[in-house]
């Protein structure tokens, strides 16, 4: 591989005009496609195989034209102090509001609070429910404005009016903090390279790669039903890896220049060596992201594949456009050890070189491996403790900031009708195979009334054919509570008995039941996902490092860092620690998709640093250095760059904490803290400590496996042998 990439690097350097033209053309083509494509909507949320989804599909078949997937809005009214909603003046205001709400072309129906008995027992709170033909993301601005104007008219009459539901759902935005993240990355690159031109190369190539990836996602969003969150996550991951991959190749290029090589030769060797690490690091990220498809949640699968495509583009750009731009930069990119005019002049040749910080740190770890290992493991274990109280759920209006009208409507409904009113359960009774459907409907309602935590059970509402009915159940507890979850399972258990007696199917659906099913499905999929992704990456790393223990250590280190990161997420978003600093206005359960998505992304990124850092150590070891010295050599060449890469990645991820989308905010924080734990605690401390303790055993590989594995030559051994760089140095067989 090193030889092929070496030739590719030289070709890209020499034919830089052609390479640059191709990437600019691709960026232009993707941009034009994105500009002319329909806007991304809210990705349809389906969970194949779950009972809630089966019930939802059955509703669409048996109750046609009801727009079951359309947007809804609950307009909640509260009477002024000392008055009631049944007073003539307040009642007239509500009636007028209902009439205004019914005029919209996209409105299916509006319920009158007084006819639907949607007035609280004390008479102070009432609500009208508005159903629309289309989803909240597809709702016209005119319809949203009409909804807001109707509420404002009622407020002018003296009522407190708030709007809940998904009709006012906004397209998520990331805010200006992502720009701050890119700015921090630029500063780190300038400090690392001491040159604006050199620092600009990784930023430019990363932005081009992200531009192509996100534009392609935007252009295909409508056709492939990609949600607006998909492009944000692809941008987040694409920026981080794009900058890092280019950073490693530019750093290796400067190191090759420092050894006296010509610029084209240096570009070829940089791509042949560091580029090999980029390929395998990118493969681990792609495996982790594509592996999300095993969960069988279409939205998560699409997010993973879209992000994986952006990572693949980042790898290709690093291998081709980076050497092309190095050709354009010429002598403005200085050899390693020299500073540009921005940060000073080159060091004097007669002055002895002082060991850099990476060398000094690695030497300390090699001398005290047990102490460093214990401190790192205990520290990560302590950070992981909050993860033991992890609660999963999907966001509802109760998780919105208190400043939003959706949250205020949620609180008013809880006040007037009880906390369970915000999470009603819809029970679908399919009595098509039953002899007496009406009797089945009545029996089902009676069974549910006898369960714990049930406040209200509405009469069955049959369809035109009379073979299917819906029953609305109001729990006594809030939607995200364990009690409500137990009630859902209780209804399903009761339904199993009804099925045995009457051949009727009883299914529970609604947003609350769907959230419960999603959480359970994700929990069930976590172990198979870990086995698949970690197993494939383990095999890949065996090929890269030609070792059993090094990939095993990498996988165990990843588990430590991801558990510590989950602990930090729980502490901030569930417990509320430092929530003000992170802009978390409302604590609650951790997003159901968060753990498995973070596991996938963090594993791929963790292997990035493992590959970049440890390949340098193995390169030194196979060329004759002792194991402990090889660890120090790997840090001397790689620690500064890995540190810069980690800081950049943390800055990019942290920039998305300012997003208005709670999932993006949570993932941005989780990935940023996970990179910190993995890069600075696991890869910079635990890894060298373990390698120092293992010595030569770290690089052991059974002879039969050594013969069976392909030689991918990540270290560029073939390049050294071809050019005679090794001289008399003996290569160590490992």
State the oligomer: single chain
* Whole-angstrom Rg: 30 Å
Beta-strand residue percentage: 5-15%
Estimated structural class: alpha+beta
Which outline best applies?
Answer: elongated
Q: Could you estimate the helical fraction of the residues in percent? A: 55-70%
Counted beta strands:
11
| Mean pLDDT level | 83
Give the termini distance in whole angstroms.
19 Å
Helix tally equals 22
Provide the low-confidence segments as ranges.
345-350, 726-734
What's the story with the biggest beta sheet? 5 strands, antiparallel
Give a written overview of the molecule:
This protein has 734 residues and is α+β, with helices and mostly antiparallel strands. Helices cover 61% and strands 7% of the residues. Strands 6, 7, 8, 9 and 10 form a five-stranded antiparallel sheet that branches. Strands 2-3-1-4 form a four-stranded antiparallel sheet, with helices on both faces.
């Amino acid at each position: 591989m090193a030889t092929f990439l070496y030739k590719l690097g030289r070709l890209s350097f020499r034919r830089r005009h052609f390479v640059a033209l191709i990437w600019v053309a691709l960026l232009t083509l993707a941009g034009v496609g994105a500009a002319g494509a329909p806007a991304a909507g809210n990705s349809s949320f389906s969970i194949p195989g779950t009972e809630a989804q089966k019930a939802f599909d059955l509703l669409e078949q048996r109750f046609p034209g009801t727009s079951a997937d359309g947007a809804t809005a609950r307009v909640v009214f509260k009477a002024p102090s000392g008055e009631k909603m049944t007073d003539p003046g307040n009642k007239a205001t509500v009636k007028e509001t209902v009439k205004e709400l019914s005029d919209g072309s996209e409105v299916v129906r509006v319920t009158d609070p007084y006819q639907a008995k949607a007035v609280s027992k004390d008479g102070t709170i009432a609500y009208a429910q508005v159903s629309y033909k289309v989803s909240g993301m597809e709702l016209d601005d005119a319809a949203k404005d009409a909804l807001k104007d109707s509420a404002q008219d009622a407020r002018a009459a003296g009522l407190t009016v708030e709007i809940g539901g998904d009709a006012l759902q906004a397209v998520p935005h990331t805010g200006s903090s992502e720009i701050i993240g890119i700015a921090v990355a630029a500063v780190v690159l300038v400090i690392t390279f001491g040159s604006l031109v050199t620092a600009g190369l990784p930023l430019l190539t990363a932005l081009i790669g992200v531009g192509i990836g996100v534009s392609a996602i935007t252009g295909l969003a409508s056709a492939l039903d990609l949600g607006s969150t998909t492009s944000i996550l692809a941008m987040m991951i694409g920026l981080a890896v794009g900058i890092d991959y280019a950073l490693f190749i530019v750093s290796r290029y400067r190191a090759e220049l420092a050894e006296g090589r010509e610029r084209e030769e240096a570009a070829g060797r940089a791509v042949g060596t560091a580029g090999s690490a980029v390929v395998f690091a990118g493969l681990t990220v792609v495996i982790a992201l594509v592996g999300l498809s095993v969960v069988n949640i279409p939205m998560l699968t699409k997010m993973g594949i879209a992000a994986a495509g952006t990572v693949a583009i980042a790898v290709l750009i690093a291998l081709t456009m980076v050497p092309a731009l190095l050709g354009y930069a010429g002598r403005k990119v200085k050899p390693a050890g020299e500073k540009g005019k921005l940060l000073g002049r080159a060091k004097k040749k007669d002055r002895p070189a002082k060991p850099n910080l990476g060398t000094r740190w690695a030497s300390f770890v090699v001398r005290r491996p047990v102490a460093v290992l214990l401190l790192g493991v205990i520290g990560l274990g302590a950070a992981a403790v909050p993860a033991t109280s992890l609660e999963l759920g999907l966001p509802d209006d109760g998780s919105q900031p208190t400043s939003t009208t959706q949250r205020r409507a949620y609180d008013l409904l809880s006040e007037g009708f009880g906390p369970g009113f915000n999470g009603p359960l819809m029970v679908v009774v399919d009595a098509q195979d039953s002899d007496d459907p009406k009797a089945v409907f009545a029996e089902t309602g009676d069974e549910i009334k006898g369960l714990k935590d049930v406040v209200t059970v509405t009469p069955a509402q049959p369809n035109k054919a009379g073979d299917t009915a819906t029953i609305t159940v109001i729990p006594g507890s809030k939607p995200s509570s364990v009690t409500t979850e137990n009630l859902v399972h209780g209804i399903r258990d009761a339904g199993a008995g009804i099925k045995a007696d009457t051949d009727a199917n009883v299914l529970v659906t609604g947003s609350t039941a769907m959230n419960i099913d999603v959480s359970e499905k994700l929990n069930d999929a976590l172990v198979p996902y870990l086995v698949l992704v970690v197993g494939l990456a383990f095999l890949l790393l065996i090929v890269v490092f030609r070792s059993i223990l090094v990939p095993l250590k990498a996988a165990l280190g990843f588990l430590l860092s991801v558990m510590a990161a989950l602990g930090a997420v729980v502490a901030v978003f569930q417990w509320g620690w430092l929530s003000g600093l992170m802009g978390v206005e409302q604590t609650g359960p951790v997003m159901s998709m968060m753990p498995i998505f973070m596991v996938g992304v963090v594993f791929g990124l963790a292997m990035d640093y493992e590959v970049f850092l440890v390949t340098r150590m193995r390169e030194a070891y196979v060329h004759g250095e002792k194991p402990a010295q090889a660890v120090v050599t790997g840090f001397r060449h790689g620690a500064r760059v890995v540190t810069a890469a980690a800081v950049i990645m943390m800055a990019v991820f942290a920039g998305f904490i300012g997003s208005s989308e709670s999932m993006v905010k949570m993932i941005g924080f989780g990935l940023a803290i996970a990179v910190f734990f993995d890069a600075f605690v696991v890869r910079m401390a635990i890894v060298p400590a373990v390698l120092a303790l293992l010595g030569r055993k770290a690089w052991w590989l059974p002879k039969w496996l050594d013969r069976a594995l392909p030689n991918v030559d990540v270290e560029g051994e073939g390049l050294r042998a071809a050019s005679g760089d090794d001289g008399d140095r003996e290569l160590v067989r490992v």
